[in-house]
Amino acid sequence: MIETVTRKRIEILADTQLQKRVTDAIDSVGITGWTIVPVTSGKGRDGAWREERVMGTDKVFVLTIAAEDKASALAETLAPMLTRYGFILSMWDVQVIRGERF
């Protein structure tokens, strides 16, 4: 039987122009990997929106998986940016194989 380990999956919705700040924060807390996925549209409390490269408001999801202590450190590091730039950060427990990689 394959053994799994619980880790935190973290998703951060941010403006594309700020993605390096997010990935730098991920790196700074010792999380070893991340993935960036473009987001083309969505809807929030302010209504629907679409990608807008001309205005510089296009968005990305920055995804990563980490041990709970590193996930907490990342959330604390990003907390000021969440409010200042309107990032959305979510995290939840996931089961992973090869937990030592995260």
Describe it.
GO terms for molecular function: enzyme regulator activity. This is Transcriptional regulator. InterPro entries: N-reg_PII. This protein has 102 residues and is of the alpha+beta class. Helix content is 27%, strand content 42%. The protein is built from two helices and six strands. The strands form two sheets. It has a four-stranded antiparallel β-sheet, with helices on one face. A two-stranded antiparallel sheet has the order 3-4. It is globular and about 45 Å long.
- Shape verdict: globular
Q: What's the gyration radius in Å?
A: 15 Å
The SSE order reads EHEEEEHE
- Largest sheet data: 4 strands, antiparallel
Distance between the termini: 20 Å
Indicate the structural class: alpha+beta
Strand neighbour order, sheet with most strands: 2-5-1-6
Q: What's the tally of helices?
A: 2
Oligomer: single chain
Give the helix level as a range of percent: 25-40%
> Could you tell me the number of beta strands?
6
How much is the average pLDDT? 88
Short précis:
The chain has 102 residues and is α+β, with helices and mostly antiparallel strands. It has helices at residues 19-28, 68-85; strands at 4-15, 35-39, 41-44, 47-50, 59-66, 88-97.
